Sequence to fold (464 residues):
Amino acid sequence: MEQGLMLKVFDSRMKKVYRMELEEYVKYAVASAMPADFPMEALKSQAVCCRTIAVRRMRIFGGSGCTRYPEYDVCTDPGHCQGFSDKLGEIPESIKKAVEETSGLILTYNGNPVEALYHDTCGGYTEDSENVLGNKISYLRKVECGFCSDSPHYVTRRIITIKNLKKKLGVNFDSATGKVDIKGIFEEIKTTGSGRIKRIKVGDREFSGEEIKELLSINSNKLNWKVVAIALEIMGKGHGLGMCQYGARGMALKGQDFANILKHYFTGTEVEKIKMPSEDNPLIFKKIAVDPGKGSEDDLCGPMGLSEGFINYEMARVLREILSKEGAKVILTRNNNEKKDLMERIRVINDFDPDLFISLQQNFLKPDREGYVEIFYLPGDKEGKRLAECIKEAFISNLKVQAVSYEADLFLLRECKCPGVMIFTCNLNCPREEKRISEEKYRKNVAQTIFSGIILYYYGLTLK
Ligand SMILES: [Zn+2]
Ligand SMILES: [Zn+2]
Fold:
């Protein structure tokens, strides 16, 4: 199934481009991410993470490619998309096996590929996404790990001099020299008039100056001190989000399989086969916004009293049903026949970040103008134009109406950040058209026709 799923990889270090099959790419990504001698189930969980990260970016699955190098699906910068072993042709057997045994499997949340982040060692607990990325992601939650204490990075120590600390952080402060208190170490210092130590509490014990001199074998008890270095104790390695790799290793050694490992670190997720668009779900991974134009206020009606806002909403509802059934994620800009102003509806569309939007409207023209469907797109919007052409074709062949498409610099078209069209499906001032669109069956036909146009736009083929 995944055969032929090609990936464009940009090697950001060598400035090279690789075109390779997804499954082949995953091997190089795993080879860069995890030591090949990790247990098989840990390698398999890593393979699923690497594959999921790639799939999430691929345009065929609704991704937007690498955001830094948008011509490509992924880059090889581990800090951006994900790392990639540049030892081409030298993939260890264990990694090949792990990738092959998980072929086509990805990690999903509500059916969508997740941002399957991983890190070396969490140090006991993973982290909540909002503390690192700033936004809350439902599947990147803090979880207890308890499997990574074997990691060489579980606790590491480093001594950093004050001089180095100032330099690295670009700060300056006085590290005072003198008889200064250092909480918990040197406290309650009493000196003689000449500056010799009379009494001092070191830790939990008091000493006389003379004792200090003797015990430390120093020349005198007239002394000063200063902090010159700090020993840091570092727990874990990496950002702490998603899968703890040493934790995955620990879980695998305890007999857990890769699916359990992944579900432990990614809250509420499932391991699933990649779903490819097919006849059963041609619009899978597509996000479509449907905008029922006009709300209930200043809502115009036809001669029979049929309200435009109502018609637009009812048609949008049916269109949403059809598109969802075919696999698309759909949002409506308003619910029920509520009033919602244009800016608010545009905001809904842009927040949803869809692949395209369809705005449904009705015309109010001279009563004798009959049988026209008008489709508008923004001047210069090539995709919008193609979508308009496809929907026009569908109207002409399915409903035998005169459909026309125009470019128009309309506010809604201009403000939405994705391709889209505005469709005026009837002339509500024409009594015959008003009657026709008042019928549920006709409205359903219109929605079905718009769906056919969308299929034509994506696949260049006509479904019934
Ligand atoms: Zn990237
Ligand atoms: Zn851990």
